[in-house]
Amino acid sequence: QTDSISFEFDLDHAPTKVCRALTDPALLTEWLLPVTGLELTPGTPLTLKTQAYPGWDGVVNCRILEIEEHRKLSYSWVVGAMGLDTVVTFTLTPTASGTRLSLVQSGFKPEQKQNFGGARYGWKMMGARLGDLLATLS
Q1: Averaged pLDDT for residues 37-65
Q2: What is the C-alpha separation between 6 and 80, in angstroms, rounded?
Q3: Where does the pLDDT of residue 53 fall: very low under 50, low under 70, confident under 90, or very high at 90 and above?
Q4: Distance CA 14, CA 122 (A)
């Protein structure tokens, strides 16, 4: 039995622009975390890294699992120091006013309530930052 976090963001931006913010390393750094090694090919590893905190070295090891241009992006999200091994999936659906971005992070174990709460807080904050960033892009 595992738990999932799920968010939906209704964005007033075209799926192509939203996809760019999810896949461009410079843009990812602005709203999510600094990224290295991002290649949009299934199986390719990438690393997200921020400042270290007590109990976490600031590193998230990822691997691209699935990509459908302008529609879906899925990757593993592994934080070894915390024993966290989850999957993050972004799904983009065109709407009359832009894009509905669905975000799901799945695979939290029952004993990972603190990780679950931290991820929920983090994605909510990152979603707001993504919206702010999209407003600045042409």
Answers
A1: 93
A2: 22
A3: confident
A4: 24
The pTM for the full model equals: 0.94
Q: Give buried/exposed letters for 5-39 (b at 16+ CB in 10 A, else e).
A: beeebebebebebbbebbbeeebbebbbbebeebe
Q: Mean pLDDT across the chain, nearest whole number?
A: 95
Helices (H), 32-92: none
Task: Locate 133 and state its tokens.
Answer: 């960033």
Say how far apart CA 130 and CA 109 lie, in whole Å.
27
DSSP codes, 77-96: EEEGGGTEEEEEEEEEEEET
pLDDT of amino acid 29? 95
